[in-house]
Write a structure and sequence with these properties.
single chain; 187 residues; alpha+beta; two-stranded antiparallel sheet; globular
């Protein structure tokens, strides 16, 4: 279904799990800023910061449908992630986001308490892999894989439920066997 290098997928997943665990430590789920908890990394794409903030609200400064922008941003984000020495809990799920298949109507950002941004994109510090061409005739469409710690699944599910283009889906729902396999190899 997806074109991927399994070894790289597992390695980057492991790092994303550790990274999101560190970033979400002591997060206030009652009053916390869901829009900024996993947006500590703000890569520069073509001499422009990827996104800008207005409080907890995030707006992209570059084309959010351009797959190469995601690739560049992910590469920079991965290079900035710290190495965590202790083994972290892996309670969570893999979210898939279809790049370029959004409405930018702002509903997902509201429903997810700003976890998703204005362009319906999940936060960059959860990203860990991009798969080219999701079995479509449109070579511009790719799938972005994100690690969502279990404590954040509620707000993500609200975005999934409301987003009309169905650009979000849980990986364990479409490929449960492979999902279980990569999670078991990650730990």
């Amino acid at each position: 279904m997806f074109k991927m290098d399994k070894q790289s997928f597992v390695e980057q997943l492991r790092i994303a799990i550790e990274w999101t665990s560190v970033l979400s430590q002591n997060f206030d789920f009652e009053k916390g800023f869901y829009g900024t908890v996993f947006r500590k990394t703000n890569p520069i794409i073509n001499n422009i910061l990827l996104y800008s903030f207005d409080g907890d609200y995030v707006t992209w400064n570059v084309d959010e449908c351009n797959v190469s922008n995601y690739k560049s941003a992910l590469s920079q984000a991965i290079s900035c992630r710290g190495i965590v020495e202790k083994k972290m809990s892996y309670r969570g799920r893999i979210l898939c986001f279809t790049i370029g298949l959004t409405t930018n109507d702002g509903v997902a950002v509201i429903e997810s308490d700003c976890f998703m941004d204005e362009s319906d994109v999940p936060p960059i510090d959860t990203w860990f892999y991009i798969s080219e061409n999701n079995n479509t005739s449109n070579s511009e469409i790719a799938t972005l894989f994100c690690w969502i710690p279990s404590e954040f699944e509620r707000v993500v599910q609200k975005a999934i439920d409301i987003e009309m283009m169905k650009s979000y889906f849980w990986f364990d729902r479409i490929n449960p066997a492979f999902n279980d396999e990569v999670l078991s190899e990650s730990f």
